[in-house]
Records
---
Amino acid sequence: MQTSVPVLLYHHINYDNDVLSIPPELFEEHLKFLKSEGYESITKEQLGEYLETGKKTWKDKAVVITFDDGYLDTWVYAYPLLKKYGFNAILFLVTWTVEEDEFTGLNLEDYWSGKIPKERLPNCSSTYSIEFGCRIKTVRRLCWEEVRTMERSGIIDVEPHSKTHRKIYASDKIVDFNRPKDKLSAWQMVKGDERFGTPDFERKPELAAREFIAYQDLRDRLADYVIQNGYAEFFKKPNWRMELENIVEEYKKEKSTEKIGEFESEEEQRKRIKTELEVAKGEVGYEVRKICEAFSWPWGAYTPLSLEIAKEVGFKYLFTTKHGSNSPGDSPFEIKRFGVWKKDLDWFKSRVRLYSKKLLSKAYGAVYRKI
Ligand SMILES: [Zn+2]
């Protein structure tokens, strides 16, 4: 008998060469397996009721299928395949990356109906470009019309996954200086000053840390120095780091202090997190015309404070990346998920079976936290 509901976390259904990118053919195998084993996909409300009361509102076995971030491949591959096998899913969106287009693009259904050859499907692979010496990764995102169409179908429940999915500077120790990097992706974006030459501090997910802000005059001094000394070329000098470190030391001497900035107050932190959550909730709600009640934490990162604020903002279901069981008595504010990786089908089968058993998934979750 099933004693825990596995909650699956997908990111990409595409052909990229990384562990989070599941080829559409493999995703279809996952769905076929779930179907043949008697699993049906349930909604957050059904899961919530089960956690609270133990009542099962499904026939045999259940899973919850979720997608994080909001990539175009959710529309092109995942949505048609879910529909084909009679499954539903929750899509957690990063709202600022959603495209404004007012029409839906082509997807697998257009191929199945013979309207287009397979090559005409939108390219969902990552592309790379070089700007200012940085290698920038670009991934195509959904547009609002695709999001609305999926929500209207009843197959996809659209919910927020933050507005910006950013990190913040969360320490006063300089670990580096901002400069041209080999690789850049949207996920490396930081809320703070990123001008070349400004200090780079330890970064943490913005909903799970207190922000440190270096003084404006120090940042300006460093950024101006880099501009006056060749900008990106400056970092080719062998002593560039020492030159910037000297500016920081001079600044401290001049001000007779070791302090180079301030941490936000708890009140400011609370306000910042609340605004971020409210905006994400409001934007998705406005676009799909509903009250959003679920949220998934960017990078799975949260603290007791952000948890408290998420409840205040009105979220009833909070999805984490913690491993463990979803069984009666467990909290809907700490729903456990397991990331589906590009591994063979047997790995997938064993994980679904494991997370269907309360004791096994609890034990595995405890071990997983230690490694
Ligand atoms: Zn994410």
---
Amino acid sequence: MDDKTTVIGVGLSKLQFAMQILMDVFHKYAKEDDKLNKGELKCLLKTELKELIDTDSNPQALDELMAELDCNQDGVVDFMEYSFYVAMLTVLLHAVKHTPPESFSTQEQHEHWQEQQQQRCPPPTQQQQQ
Ligand SMILES: [Ca+2]
Ligand SMILES: [Ca+2]
């Protein structure tokens, strides 16, 4: 059975449908503990985002992405960390949609995402200030 067709309730709006799919994709790879370890993240990227992120020809990219996503540094990617990443990718795709391809390189997209991530997730020295 095709797992892409098993989930959706009838009568959802497009946005609710999209949110449901976001959750379903996360749960498919995160499994019982509801968190993505590095292997599960790799599997998700390879299956769901292979056109955007190539971790096969660039194995270091997986480590870097894992470090960037794991905002609370507990070694796994939880739903909030995953959601933020998907949201940022969506923002980038939206920007690309409105920008001529030759003026917005993949490298620039990634740098833009890193800037956003640093704003959301300051270095550890700036946390724990209470
Ligand atoms: Ca897991
Ligand atoms: Ca984490």
